[in-house]
Amino acid sequence: PISAREKRQATVANAMRLTPPPSTFAGAAARSLSAAALAALLSVSSITPSVPPAFGPAAAQAKELASGSGSRVNKDPISLLRLALPRVSKEARELQAGLEECQDNLARLNGQVASSALQKAKVAAGKSGAMLKSVPPAKAAEAQAALDTINAAMDEVGAKIAASRQGEALAATERALGAVTQLQEAMASGYAQPSPPKEFASLPYLKGRATVDLVLQPGKEHGQFDVEGKLYKQLEVKMVVDGYTSPITAGNFVDLVRRGFYNGMHIQRSDGFVVQTGDPSNELEGSGADAKKNGYVEGGKVRKIPLEVMVRGDKDPIYSATFDDDGRGGYAAAMPFNSYGALGMAREEYDPDSASSQWFWLLFDSDLTPAGKNLLDGRYACFGYTVDGARLLSDVKEGDIIASAKVSSGESNLVLPTAPALAVAAE
After folding, report:
1. Mean pLDDT over all residues of the chain?
2. Contact 88, 184 (CB under 8 A)
3. What pLDDT score does 80 carry?
4. What percent of the chain lies above the pLDDT cut of 90?
5. CB neighbour burial string for 16-35, b if at least 16 within 10 angstroms, e if fewer
6. Is 138 exposed, middle or buried (0-12, 13-18, 19+ CB in 10 A)?
7. How far apart are CA 117 and CA 106, in angstroms?
């Protein structure tokens, strides 16, 4: 028999596929049983991967690193983004782990354990020389300033904990972690990111990261957004997309955002599990989208991108195959679907390279995607997280409108294909 959890997982799996035309909805429903069977299979698999020491953080973590390990789930998008940065030293990971453990326990009002975690972080911070060696010379001053901020903030955390002012201690811990992000980003700036495989030379890709700001307005039948009793005329969310782990997926998205492709587009699915958009064939007449094409049209045909997933600890993504196809089902993803508002790329059920412009926010539920038994990681590309305004997505409904989507930072990291590559692709 199929459990309630497995049925709900199957619903999510179906939701993340490309939005089908009306004539195929019945077929999609009929296939839900097979999806449930797959969910049942995945829910009992438990493969513990070995992580190469050069890439897997060696520190003991307060939060689980990704979906494939342990029983706790790291739901913090900022932490997950830090963990996905390349070229970060062991000492910086230890510093992050200590401060995140401190943050977690302060939030639980457990000052004694938080104080112990703070001492771990201070020991790691004492290894500043080793950390600075991992920073490119051009970023050395920036990294030193971040370390100075971290040390000052940690001193304040200790004093506030001693005075039983845990709210203020938590705020100081968050400032320290913000500086940890700056330190680790300085390290990652020295990463020589490889280009995607040559067969994808006609596609844009993203080096590093970019930030996208998106404004949502309610549709005609919605009135105002109601989020936990507070009314909003419009919602503003901020998303960070990651080109380190999914350069083509992130690059394709940033390219479409900068072209204005999503401006004025409607939310096309909202079922409590995902909020999905990006299908021009579902748009109303006069919206400006090509209603005859299910995707972004370039050179007279739909531009499609490959499935792009990455195992934590790997140097490069896996292309055109799932973790299962690659013989690593259940391994931890570098960018797991752990956070509320995680960004994913929709695709057809049986074609890994069918994604084009449809994407979704996952309204994360740890019951749907439990740690180590995740139906989504390694099957769909997670290419970023909502870092501000994620909880506002809870009242986004079908028919609501993307008033605007803009690349607020990182557009210069977008690498566009050359004219010869586009010409070859058009042949």
Report:
1. 84
2. yes
3. 97
4. 71
5. bbbbbeeeeeeeeeebeeeb
6. exposed
7. 10
Whether residue 331 is predicted with pLDDT greater than 50 in this model: the reply is yes
**pLDDT per residue as tens digits for the range 241-282:** 999 999 999 999 999 999 999 999 999 999 999 999 999 987
Q: What CA–CA distance (Å, rounded) separates 113 from 302? A: 54
Contact present, 102 and 173 (Cβ < 8 Å): yes
Extended beta strands in 91-156, E state = none
Q: What are the structure tokens assigned to 377, written together?
A: 């990681």
Strand partners, 215: 236, 404
Q: Count other C-beta atoms under 10 Å from residue 223's C-beta.
A: 10
**Which has more pLDDT, 300 or 393?**
393
Q: Pull the structure tokens for residue 83.
A: 């963990």
Q: What is the pLDDT of residues 25-72, one digit of tens each?
A: 223 333 333 344 333 332 222 222 222 223 333 333 435 444 444 456
Residue 351 has pLDDT above 80, yes or no: yes
Sequence letter at residue 126: G
Q: Whole-angstrom Cα distance, residue 64 to residue 68?
A: 9
Residues in the chain: 427
Rounded to 5°, angle at Cα 50 from 47 and 55: 135
Residues 6+ apart with CB under 8 A from 424: 201, 202
199, 248, 265, 427 from 203: Cα distances, Å: 9, 7, 23, 15
Q: Which of 47, 69, 45, 46 is nearest to 57 (CA)?
A: 69
Query: Is there a contact between 202 and 421 (Cβ–Cβ < 8 Å)?
Result: yes
| 110/12 Cα distance (integer angstroms) | 36
How many C-beta atoms surround the C-beta of residue 177 within 10 A?
A: 22
CA distance linking residue 361 with residue 253, whole number of Å: 13
Asked if 194 and 310 count as a contact pair (C-beta separation under 8 A), the reply is no
Q: What integer pLDDT is reported at residue 299 of this predicted model?
A: 85
Q: 230: which strand partners?
A: 227
Contact 309, 381 (CB under 8 A): yes
Tokens of 420: 């010869």
How far is it, in rounded angstroms, from Cα 235 to Cα 214?
8
Round to whole Å and give the CA distance between 359 and 170.
35
Average pLDDT, stretch 390-394?
A: 96
**So what's the pLDDT on residue 371?**
53
